[in-house]
Every structure is written in C-alpha cells, then in structure tokens.
Specification:
The structure is a single chain. The protein has a single domain (7-245), classed as Mitochondrial biogenesis AIM24 (Double-stranded beta-helix). It is built from four helices and 19 strands. It has helices at 58-70, 136-142, 199-204, 227-234; strands at 7-11, 17-22, 27-31, 35-38, 42-48, 76-82, 88-93, 98-104, 111-114, 119-123, 127-132, 147-152, 156-162, 165-177, 182-185, 190-195, 210-223, 245-246, 252-253. Strands 9, 11, 12, 14, 15, 16 and 17 form a seven-stranded antiparallel beta sheet that branches. Strands 5-6-3-10-13-8 form a six-stranded antiparallel beta sheet. Strands 1-2-7-4 form a four-stranded antiparallel beta sheet, with no helix packed on it. The longest helix is centred in the first third of the chain and has 13 residues, at 58-70.
Length: 255
C-alpha cells in the first residue's frame, strides 16, 4: 500500500510535538495515547494493526497486533482521518522529554529498525512490526536490541528519542555505543554486543559490562538520554536502584 503524503511541522525544542496537516481523506496512524490535539473535521478510530494491508484477515490482524505486546506497546493503534473538505491538523507529543525525528522511509530503502518504544506516528500505509535480532547474544548480554520495531513503507514516519539526537552516516565503519543510546538504524547496518574491555574496565569503568556495536554503511540515530538513565537519575536512591533490572527483552522488572 502506498503511504499517504502528509505535511508536518515540529514544534518546540526539548519537549517537542509534531503537528501533521492532512488533506481531505488523508490519514495518519499513531500509538494509543499519543494525540495532543486535533482540529474539527478529524475523526479517529482505534483499530487492530496499522492498516498497511487493508484486506488482511482477522487472524493475521490479531497476530500482527499481538506481536506488538512483546515490545510493550498497546495492542491497538489509532487512525486519524481528515473527513472535512479542507486541510485539517492533528498533533502528537512524545511521552518523555527529547526530540522527534522525521524520517522519509523511501530515502532509507523503505525500512528502518527502531528501539522498541521509539515509534510515535506515521502516514497511513506504513507497516509497523517487530524485529527480532538474529544474534541472540545481543538480547541476552546487552539487555536491549533483541526485540525491536521495524517500520516499512514509502512515506513519513516519526520516532522520538531522549535528550539530544545525533544522526551519523557510517561508511563501512564500526561504532561502539551504550546500547540504550541507539534510537534507530537502517537495515543494512549490523547490530551486535561485545564486552566493554578488560575485566577491570568492565567492573570499575562505569560503562557497564557490554557495549553495542553498529557496523556497516548507512544511517544511524543516537540519543543522549535514554529513558532508563532518566528514571535512574530521578530515583530517590540516586541511580543505585534495585528496581529497574533489565530482562532479555529490555524491560524494567520489579523485585
């Protein structure tokens, strides 16, 4: 399905929102609860799935929607459509302070891989699914990067990140990164996990036991303040918290 051609404007600096302008009968999909405001003439409907395959059967819709639960997202997505006779606007806000990144999927070979809670909204026609890292060690050791989201299509998609966003282009290079700081990368980039250094560095260096590596040629997006670091800093114990242990799915667990 060809994605709808939407116009947009990013508003704000550190706590941003994206305002999407829809022509009559154009639609945008979004995570449940992301909408901030919408003008008269915009209708919304909560649906199973992203609507990228309108003739999809019920069982396929249930499987597709159910797989999103693995990433910690809602079973449903909200579809916003301009039912009026002129342009109308609807806006979406990120769930925590940071930046909203607009990505034209057709400029990234029609696909990007995104952190599991990074998707905000996209033009109707964008397929949102899970992406399982084929290297199980990335999940078992890194705590993040085993279960991700995949966005596919030929239109605009919007993802959000914490703090400042850095966009880099690798040219047959390798970059070592705190795994929580990876926001998104193009599919030709290889993701893996490696030890952070010597035993002394791993124990006393403060960078954790493992680092993520992104290798290849293509674009990557990084964030300076992952949500887990923000939660740790806001914790009354100053970051030395027992709650917040990472599972192989990258979720926070209760003790």
């Amino acid at each position: 399905m060809t994605s709808h051609e939407i116009d947009y404007k990013i508003i704000g600096d550190d706590i941003q929102l994206v305002e999407v302008e829809l022509d009559p009968h154009e639609s945008v999909i979004a995570e449940a609860g992301a909408m901030l405001y919408m003008e008269e003439g915009i209708s919304f409907e909560t649906k199973l799935g992203d609507g990228s395959t309108p003739n999809q059967g019920l069982l396929n819709k249930l499987f597709s929607a159910g797989s999103r639960l693995i990433t910690g997202e809602s079973l449903f997505m909200t579809h916003f459509t301009n039912q009026g006779l002129s342009k109308r606007k609807v806006s979406f806000a990120a769930p925590y302070p940071g930046k909203i990144i607009p990505i034209d999927l057709k400029n990234s070979k029609g696909e990007i891989i995104v952190q599991k809670d990074g998707f905000l909204c996209a033009a109707l026609g964008t397929k949102v699914s899970i992406h399982l890292n084929r290297k199980l060690g990335a999940g078992l050791l890194g705590g993040e990067g085993f279960i991700l989201q995949k966005l596919m299509g030929d239109g605009l998609a919007f993802i959000h990140a914490g703090g400042t966003v850095i966009e880099k282009t690798l040219n047959n290079e390798t970059l070592r990164i705190d795994s929580g700081c990876i926001v998104a990368y193009e599919p030709q980039i290889n993701f893996n996990i490696e030890a952070s250094g010597s035993l002394k560095s791993m124990v006393f260096g403060g960078e954790g036991l493992f680092l993520a590596t992104l290798q290849g040629t293509g674009k990557i997006w990084l964030q300076s303040m992952p949500i887990r670091k923000l939660i740790q800093r806001l914790s009354p114990t100053g970051g030395n918290i027992k709650k917040g242990s990472r599972s192989i799915l990258g979720n926070f667990l209760e003790d």
